[in-house]
Amino acid sequence: MGLKDFRIVFDNPWNTYYPGQTLSGRVIIAVDSPKKIRGINVKLKGEANTCWATDRQEINHEGHYENESQTVTGHEEYFNIQYNILGSPSGGEIELPVGENSYPFTCALPPNLPSSFEHDYGHVRYTVKATIDRPWKFDHETKMAFTVVSNFDLNKETRAMEPIHMEMSKTFCCLCCGSPPLNVNVILPVKGYVPGQTMIARLNIDNKSGIIVETVKLILRKIVTFRANNPRTDTRRDKIIVAEVSKGPIEAHATADYEQKLDIPPLPPSNLTNCGIIDLEYNFKVEACVSGWYHRNLKSNTLVFIGTVPLLNYQSLILPSPTKIGFNSGDGNDAHPDKSADPTYGGYPSGYPAFSPGSGYPSSTTPTAPEPPPNYNSDIPAQIQPNSNIYPNLPPPSYEEAGWSVRSLRERGESEHVLGNHGHFAPRYPVYNFKQL
């Protein structure tokens, strides 16, 4: 078959959707001569998987301990929709005309989906696969992943509005005597942030000891818990540093009082709501690293929240997002949305109201993001409750790739010849453009 092009293109150029929204796109097929097929099928799937190898000791038949390696897995399926966009499996042959052909597809996403997530030990992943059903020949297949972002409004999480006040103290042993203490106090105004925002910490360090503090680190960590249930129950936890800053040294018998900023990169929102095999939380860690291998560092951490809607009473000046974020056109090449394109492709659907100026938020007439997220805390169906109705003066975010990506979308038992399986994929998450403080 003279197949020149076979790919999936989403109508949303960021390939990013919220639960309850309608996903739409096109299957592009180009052939150099008329071809006989039975039909074209699309399969849309959302699922979570976990997998890792474990080692444990077992007693063999001789009564000796030996190491046993075992792979444990977990699985959840959120939806699996399959239908023909051309022809049918039981119908007759259809002829594909010469040249490029475009076949639309659409799917209403369920309202209760966890956010996309990628990691070596597990993922929450959403894909579309298109298949050209060919009589008496191997089928052609292509696959494309897309991002789902589950709304986490920080204004509805009371703990996100609470300040952080960490008081840390430590003494160091010297022979039989303890040293005067090293005291570290850290204050942040809130516990809730969104990507693109800056955590502003105020530090007061009173080093009364005779030990040098080489550096004081501020660390934002992603804490992920994976669960498996086949062939047995197991749990695995991973801690990943997603942002870090440091300052030092602080000499012995010295003090320091300063402000430090930690920028929040693109990240999935806290909790992974509606996923039962992967949990996600974030914590803010402070570590005073002291000199001498025989002294332990002073450290502490506290829970923080990463959301998709920022706190409105904190750092409220948000600018319209720049149109710098590219998207995948389905052929592996990056492109940029055309600002003059149909708005159903770029950001808001046709007829969507423009922003009006309000306190703290400048107006914007050229939104550059997918449809804003629904309010999932409402009993009203998700697709008719956009966030812009709740926060009309909130400029939309951009959607940027997270640092963790996957090199292959190939599933167990799937053919190695599926197009798109070996391309880079990283989920995109909302990032706000805050005015620099």
UniProtKB/TrEMBL annotation:
GO CC aspect terms: cytoplasm
Region: Disordered, residue numbers: 329-377
Domain Arrestin C-terminal-like: 178-311
Residue stretches of biased makeup (Low complexity): 356-368
Pfam family, one: Arrestin_C
Entry keyword set: Sensory transduction
Membership in a protein family: Belongs to the arrestin family.
Keyword Iron found: no
The protein, known as: Arrestin C-terminal-like domain-containing protein
